[in-house]
């Protein structure tokens, strides 16, 4: 805990704000269902789109359900789908990048060309095509989001890995007869971790935005599940009244992604300074 | 003097022909990528999903009916053959019949494409100068107040979802202030003023989304050059700062800046998907969303290919500008 | 008065007078600042040249830049006074500084490649100081630039200005940068290590051009340099710095002749190779360890024994057990490629590399564990040769496990022994590599190679990234290890004087060809290939009269397009027209001294002349 506090203190103000927001949403996602005042699907208000009140902190939605409870449940989907897909994308992209960097020649050619092709498809377009083809169950969404962001991670990881593979210490290891696997995992990968962690954060932000966007279009998380993007969509008619039911989930996504972005940036800066 | 300058004597083909060669190579590479993209798009949307004939007819259809439809739709032929036919259709600008609207895909797209181009054009005209101004201002005042404020602002803006911006825009300008329509009605009969008014919110939203990324990349490109040795040399020659930026830094930064602008504008393609849908804007992106909802594959494939082609075109333009602005490649 | 020609400047009497007193320059935020220059004072009389000397981190460049009122980002001038021509530079505001820089104080940087804007022509950049200070019209400025180009003996002075920086060689750019500094006729010229990035044979011409230009312009000059023989040629006065403080100051003759400070003495000793006392090796039978025969190698696909981009052609070399063989060459000579071919990192295209009589497989794939162990590499830059995420102990333990299967406590014991061998405390094993100094890192780099217990140690420019004194110690360490452990050393360097004192055999590479090779004794007797002669004559000496008397002269620049003919032909002053530029040079052998001296030249032995 003291370690965490001293880490927080070492960050500039925007970084601290980011850290707070990220921790807040992580906790909300973990403990949300325990904290939720009402059952997630319960119709508890006779009114719809009611404003904030002591009974319903964030008002009620288009069916008279408690927005706060639904938000806490929605955050779970958004945060965990995002984290899972970002991890999957990073691990896949980085593994491919290491293979490409160590086995230069045709392996690198084929993998790089494939990734160059995939990266030329705008991410939302790519995701839409996949959703159209395969549908959008939770597992599929996780996979689709991961696949969409593999090429970006691959490109960055490959650039770093190639830079490192040209370092003299890698040349030395090759001249010792070390195996490619040992070189990739023992010499190259440990030096990539910091930039890759920053990239993981960035992928998380992108994926949260992508999945929320898809849900907002009605193509992402399907009922009865609902992530934060779905909450915005289902309450879209409340916009004419400026209902908290639509503003709150939208703000929730924004605070999560902006917070993550501020935190990553502060960490990157600290490293280079 | 060639004797004293052996390295000048060996002149490679210079000038225009070199540039033409380089540009030609980039263009060829972009075309190859587009071809590969088409394979990916067709494989995912045309080959991998289940049986479209079965789906069209539903569970109650007899096997004979399904087989007949499969034959009619050409689904019984091998994948590569179907791909070639599909690609041929796209190249002839005749990608087939929309399954849902029951009219040629070409006609639907012809109706929607100009609207999307108009939206992208409006946004680019506002976003590019704004982003360049922000990026350059931040780089020039590096570490100062302007830079810090802009940095924080753009860092937050890139992570804000489009629909939050759009929703807040509607709430403020349409619901509270009643200045602008929340739904974009675009038609050929509408007057220019009406068109601009109805495009205002979508353009504002897209600009907001695009500007931040572009400004950040512009700043990074400028700073890379401001750190170069020749800038210190210019300072030590007594060159005023304004001249350093315009005369020394700009020619070197222009390639990376155009690249930044192109990459950010390509983000418009994705951003437009949400924005067009929210404002009911009759463009290509909302068309694509409809195609996904209704699983109208021919329409979806065409829209996807147009978006990919647009992306590759932007990147190609950036590459060409970078080639033209670099004397190493010019001479 | 802004249009006044520099000759009629109002402060005629004090023009070029430089006075610095109590100078203090700091880095870091105000609450945690650290001085990088502290209490430095000196004065230079008009027209004199002061050299600032010292090792890296001594603050010499920082002081030189402060004379233009400039501090690099992060640093600032925090105290003391700086007077140029009677005016206080330290008190000037931005506008006054702009008026000073490029007009009265001009700067020549270390790397011209970085200091020239790649997107603008040379002419536009050279005349810029005249234009921004409104001292001449564009036409006059260009005419003046061309005159200066000619006086700096640049080729084609009429048209060279139309070129872009990437089209010119390093030596030419360095002189063009001097032209840019000289063009306004400044009263103070600052040279910041202006020839450090150049090859030694290029350096001579540039130094001559600089010296003539300083004398002709009559300007006061500050010359920053770590290379003492070069300082001896350029300076009238010397200021010795260490860690931002003055160690010693005085006239060149006094400081170099009778140094008072121990630090100055150490610098001088290192510069003179005085510290190096190599025991004469008894002439003993050579037991061949490494034999290279007709080696060709390069990059890209190999077809018919020729790579796509050939680097080395027909190189042969012999290295006996426990011998030191020196490979000398300038940038582009292929000397590092040779090291990589022997280590298996660049595939052999043609010829043979024999270790202990057995041919080494052409690339890494075919080599046995023993072959990997026997040949060990020590790289130039220890920073990049040692993985920064590891501790010293981990780095040294890996070759023990890999080559000898030593692990655990035995490995720890051996690591301690290795550290002792390279004269570092055993506690170093626990430290991260990032926490070590440059010299310590290079020792660890060496220890890691020794851990494998090699038979051949390939040292690629192991001292050129280090300060002279530190480098000297590393050289002595390598030499003593070679004697004690009986390891053969292949010593790759651009510095002929170091190699000469160190090696039993010498090979001179030029443009990928071995132009001369000899045992050390035969090499000392001569005669030499014209390129070797140029190289020997180009090495600056401590004698201040050396530059004026140096016979080092090159005809042109670059490599010939025809790969068959002598690679040195375009630069050779004694090339025979009709022969050297048409036919491949024959391999000649010295008749008098047996078969231990060969060179690749059309000139017969007698014509090359003995020393």
From TrEMBL, chain A:
<dbReference type="InterPro" id="IPR050366">
    <property type="entry name" value="BP-dependent_transpt_permease"/>
</dbReference>
<dbReference type="InterPro" id="IPR000515">
    <property type="entry name" value="MetI-like"/>
</dbReference>
<dbReference type="Pfam" id="PF00528">
    <property type="entry name" value="BPD_transp_1"/>
</dbReference>
<feature type="transmembrane region" description="Helical">
    <location>
        <begin position="77"/>
        <end position="104"/>
    </location>
</feature>
<keyword id="KW-1133">Transmembrane helix</keyword>
<keyword id="KW-1003">Cell membrane</keyword>
<keyword id="KW-0812">Transmembrane</keyword>
<protein>
    <submittedName>
        <fullName>ABC transporter permease</fullName>
    </submittedName>
</protein>
<feature type="transmembrane region" description="Helical">
    <location>
        <begin position="196"/>
        <end position="222"/>
    </location>
</feature>
<keyword id="KW-0472">Membrane</keyword>
<comment type="similarity">
    <text>Belongs to the binding-protein-dependent transport system permease family.</text>
</comment>
<dbReference type="InterPro" id="IPR035906">
    <property type="entry name" value="MetI-like_sf"/>
</dbReference>
<keyword id="KW-0813">Transport</keyword>
<feature type="transmembrane region" description="Helical">
    <location>
        <begin position="242"/>
        <end position="264"/>
    </location>
</feature>
<feature type="domain" description="ABC transmembrane type-1">
    <location>
        <begin position="75"/>
        <end position="264"/>
    </location>
</feature>
Automatic annotation (TrEMBL), chain B:
<comment type="similarity">
    <text>Belongs to the binding-protein-dependent transport system permease family.</text>
</comment>
<dbReference type="Pfam" id="PF19300">
    <property type="entry name" value="BPD_transp_1_N"/>
</dbReference>
<keyword id="KW-0812">Transmembrane</keyword>
<dbReference type="InterPro" id="IPR045621">
    <property type="entry name" value="BPD_transp_1_N"/>
</dbReference>
<feature type="transmembrane region" description="Helical">
    <location>
        <begin position="299"/>
        <end position="324"/>
    </location>
</feature>
<feature type="transmembrane region" description="Helical">
    <location>
        <begin position="257"/>
        <end position="279"/>
    </location>
</feature>
<protein>
    <submittedName>
        <fullName>ABC transporter permease</fullName>
    </submittedName>
</protein>
<keyword id="KW-0472">Membrane</keyword>
<keyword id="KW-1133">Transmembrane helix</keyword>
<feature type="transmembrane region" description="Helical">
    <location>
        <begin position="152"/>
        <end position="175"/>
    </location>
</feature>
<dbReference type="Pfam" id="PF00528">
    <property type="entry name" value="BPD_transp_1"/>
</dbReference>
<feature type="transmembrane region" description="Helical">
    <location>
        <begin position="27"/>
        <end position="48"/>
    </location>
</feature>
<feature type="transmembrane region" description="Helical">
    <location>
        <begin position="117"/>
        <end position="140"/>
    </location>
</feature>
<feature type="transmembrane region" description="Helical">
    <location>
        <begin position="195"/>
        <end position="215"/>
    </location>
</feature>
<dbReference type="InterPro" id="IPR035906">
    <property type="entry name" value="MetI-like_sf"/>
</dbReference>
TrEMBL record, chain C:
<feature type="domain" description="ABC transporter">
    <location>
        <begin position="290"/>
        <end position="536"/>
    </location>
</feature>
<dbReference type="InterPro" id="IPR050319">
    <property type="entry name" value="ABC_transp_ATP-bind"/>
</dbReference>
<dbReference type="InterPro" id="IPR027417">
    <property type="entry name" value="P-loop_NTPase"/>
</dbReference>
<dbReference type="InterPro" id="IPR003593">
    <property type="entry name" value="AAA+_ATPase"/>
</dbReference>
<dbReference type="InterPro" id="IPR013563">
    <property type="entry name" value="Oligopep_ABC_C"/>
</dbReference>
<dbReference type="InterPro" id="IPR017871">
    <property type="entry name" value="ABC_transporter-like_CS"/>
</dbReference>
<dbReference type="InterPro" id="IPR003439">
    <property type="entry name" value="ABC_transporter-like_ATP-bd"/>
</dbReference>
<keyword id="KW-0547">Nucleotide-binding</keyword>
<feature type="domain" description="ABC transporter">
    <location>
        <begin position="18"/>
        <end position="268"/>
    </location>
</feature>
<keyword id="KW-0067">ATP-binding</keyword>
<dbReference type="GO" id="GO:0005524">
    <property type="term" value="F:ATP binding"/>
</dbReference>
<dbReference type="Pfam" id="PF00005">
    <property type="entry name" value="ABC_tran"/>
</dbReference>
<protein>
    <submittedName>
        <fullName>ABC transporter ATP-binding protein</fullName>
    </submittedName>
</protein>
<comment type="similarity">
    <text>Belongs to the ABC transporter superfamily.</text>
</comment>
<dbReference type="Pfam" id="PF08352">
    <property type="entry name" value="oligo_HPY"/>
</dbReference>
């Amino acid at each position: 805990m003291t370690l965490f506090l001293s880490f927080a203190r070492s960050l500039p103000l925007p970084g601290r704000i980011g850290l707070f927001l990220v921790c807040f949403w992580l906790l909300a996602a973990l403990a949300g269902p325990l904290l939720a005042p009402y059952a997630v699907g319960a119709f508890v208000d006779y009114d719809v789109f009611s404003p904030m009140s002591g009974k319903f902190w964030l008002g009620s939605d288009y069916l008279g359900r408690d927005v706060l409870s639904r938000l806490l449940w929605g955050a779970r989907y958004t945060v965990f789908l995002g984290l899972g897909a970002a991890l999957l994308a990073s691990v896949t992209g980085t593994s491919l990048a290491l293979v490409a960097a160590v086995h230069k020649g045709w392996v690198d050619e084929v993998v790089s060309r494939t990734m160059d092709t995939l990266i030329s498809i705008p991410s939302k377009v790519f995701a839409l095509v996949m959703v159209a083809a395969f549908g959008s169950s939770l597992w599929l969404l996780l996979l689709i989001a991961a696949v969409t962001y593999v090429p970006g991670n691959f490109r960055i990881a490959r650039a770093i890995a190639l830079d490192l593979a040209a370092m003299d210490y890698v040349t030395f290891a090759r001249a010792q007869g070390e195996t490619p696997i040992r070189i990739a995992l023992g010499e190259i990968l440990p030096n990539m971790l910091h930039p890759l962690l920053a990239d993981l954060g960035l992928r998380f932000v992108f994926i949260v935005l992508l999945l929320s966007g898809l849900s907002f279009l009605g193509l992402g998380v399907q009922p009865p599940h609902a992530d934060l993007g779905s909450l915005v969509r289902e309450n879209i008619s409340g916009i004419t009244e400026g209902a908290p039911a639509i503003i709150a989930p939208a703000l929730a996504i924004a605070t999560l992604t902006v917070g993550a972005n501020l935190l990553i940036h502060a960490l990157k800066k600290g490293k280079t300074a | 003097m060639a004797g004293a300058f052996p390295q000048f004597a060996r002149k490679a083909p210079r000038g225009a022909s070199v540039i033409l060669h380089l540009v030609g190579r980039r263009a060829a590479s972009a075309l190859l990528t587009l071809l590969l993209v088409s394979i990916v798009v067709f494989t995912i949307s045309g080959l991998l999903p289940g049986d479209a004939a079965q789906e069209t007819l539903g569970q109650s259809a007899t096997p004979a009916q399904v087989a007949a439809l499969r034959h009619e739709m050409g689904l019984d032929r091998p994948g590569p053959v179907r791909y070639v036919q599909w690609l041929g259709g796209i190249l002839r600008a005749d990608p087939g019949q929309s399954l849902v609207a029951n009219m040629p895909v070409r006609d639907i797209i012809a109706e929607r494409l100009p609207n999307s181009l108009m939206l992208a054009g409006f946004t680019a005209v506002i976003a590019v100068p704004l982003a360049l101004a922000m990026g350059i201002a931040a780089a020039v005042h590096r570490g100062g107040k302007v830079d810090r404020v802009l940095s924080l602002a753009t860092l937050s803006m890139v992570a804000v979802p489009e629909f939050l911006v759009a929703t807040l825009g509607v709430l403020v300008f349409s619901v509270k202030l009643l200045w602008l329509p929340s739904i974009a009605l675009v038609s050929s009969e509408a007057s220019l003023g009406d068109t601009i008014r109805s495009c205002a919110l979508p353009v504002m939203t897209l600009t907001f989304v695009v500007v931040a990324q572009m400004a950040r990349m512009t700043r990074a490109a400028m700073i890379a050059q401001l750190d170069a040795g020749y800038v210190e040399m210019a300072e030590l020659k007594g060159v005023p700062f304004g001249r350093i930026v315009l005369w020394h830094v700009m020619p070197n930064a222009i390639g990376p800046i155009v690249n930044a602008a192109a990459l950010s504008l390509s983000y418009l393609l994705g951003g437009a998907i949400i924005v067009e849908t929210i404002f009911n804007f009759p463009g290509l992106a909302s068309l694509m969303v409809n195609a996904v909802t209704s699983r109208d594959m021919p329409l979806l494939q065409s829209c996807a290919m147009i978006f990919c082609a647009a992306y590759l075109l932007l990147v190609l333009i950036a590459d060409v500008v970078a080639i033209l602005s670099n004397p190493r490649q010019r001479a | 008065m802004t249009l006044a020609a520099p000759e009629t400047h109002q402060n005629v009497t004090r023009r070029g007078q430089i006075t610095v007193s109590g100078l203090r320059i700091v880095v870091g935020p105000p609450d945690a600042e650290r001085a990088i220059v502290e209490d430095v004072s000196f004065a230079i009389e008009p027209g004199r040249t002061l050299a600032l000397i010292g090792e890296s981190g001594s603050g010499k460049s920082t002081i030189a830049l402060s004379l233009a009122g400039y501090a690099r980002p992060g640093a600032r001038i925090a105290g003391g006074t700086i007077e140029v021509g009677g005016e206080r530079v330290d008190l000037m505001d931005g506008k006054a500084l702009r008026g000073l820089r490029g007009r009265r104080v001009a700067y020549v940087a270390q790397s011209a490649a970085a200091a020239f804007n790649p997107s603008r022509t040379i002419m536009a950049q050279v005349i810029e100081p005249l234009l921004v200070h409104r001292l001449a019209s564009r036409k006059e400025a260009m005419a003046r630039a061309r005159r200066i180009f000619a006086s700096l003996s640049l080729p084609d002075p009429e048209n060279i200005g139309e070129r872009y920086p990437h089209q010119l060689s390093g030596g030419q750019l360095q002189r063009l940068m001097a032209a840019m500094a000289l063009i306004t006729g400044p009263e103070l010229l600052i040279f910041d290590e202006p020839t450090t990035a150049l090859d030694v044979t290029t350096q001579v011409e540039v130094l001559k051009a600089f010296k003539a230009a300083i004398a002709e312009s009559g300007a006061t000059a500050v010359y920053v340099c770590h290379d003492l023989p070069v300082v001896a040629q350029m300076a009238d006065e010397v200021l010795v710095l260490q860690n931002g403080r003055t160690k010693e100051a005085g006239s060149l003759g006094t400081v170099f002749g009778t140094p008072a400070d121990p630090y100055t003495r150490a610098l001088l000793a290192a510069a003179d190779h005085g510290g190096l006392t190599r025991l004469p090796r008894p002439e003993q039978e050579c037991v061949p360890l490494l034999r290279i025969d007709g080696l060709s190698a390069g990059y890209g696909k190999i077809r018919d024994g020729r790579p796509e981009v050939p680097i080395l052609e027909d190189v042969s070399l012999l290295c006996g057990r426990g011998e030191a063989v020196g490979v000398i060459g300038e940038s582009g000579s292929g000397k590092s490629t040779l090291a990589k071919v022997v280590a298996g990192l660049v595939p052999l295209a043609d010829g043979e590399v024999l270790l202990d009589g057995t041919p080494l497989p052409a690339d890494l794939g075919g080599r046995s564990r023993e072959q990997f162990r026997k040949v060990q590499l020590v790289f130039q830059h220890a920073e990049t040769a040692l993985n920064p995420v590891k501790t010293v102990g981990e780095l040294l333990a890996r070759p023990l496990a890999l080559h000898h299967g030593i692990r655990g406590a035995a490995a720890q014991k051996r690591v301690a022994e290795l550290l002792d061998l390279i004269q570092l405390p055993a506690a170093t094993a626990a430290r991260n590599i990032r926490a070590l100094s440059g010299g310590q890192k290079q020792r660890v780099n060496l220890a890691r190679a020794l851990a494998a217990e090699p038979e051949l140690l390939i040292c690629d420019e192991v001292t050129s990234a280090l300060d002279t004194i530190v480098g000297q110690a590393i050289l002595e360490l390598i030499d003593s290890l070679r004697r004690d452990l009986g390891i053969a050393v292949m010593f790759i360097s651009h510095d002929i004087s170091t190699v000469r004192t160190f090696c039993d055999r010498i090979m001179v590479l030029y443009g990928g060809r071995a132009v001369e090779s000899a045992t050390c004794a035969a090499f000392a007797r001569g005669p030499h290939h014209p390129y070797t002669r140029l190289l020997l004559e180009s090495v600056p000496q401590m004698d201040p009269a050396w530059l004026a008397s140096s016979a080092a002269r090159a005809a042109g620049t670059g490599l010939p397009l025809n790969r068959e003919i002598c690679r040195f032909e375009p630069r050779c002053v004694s090339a025979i027209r009709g022969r050297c530029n048409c036919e491949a040079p024959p391999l000649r052998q010295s008749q008098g001294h047996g078969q231990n001296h060969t060179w690749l030249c059309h000139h017969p032995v007698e014509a090359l002349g003995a020393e």
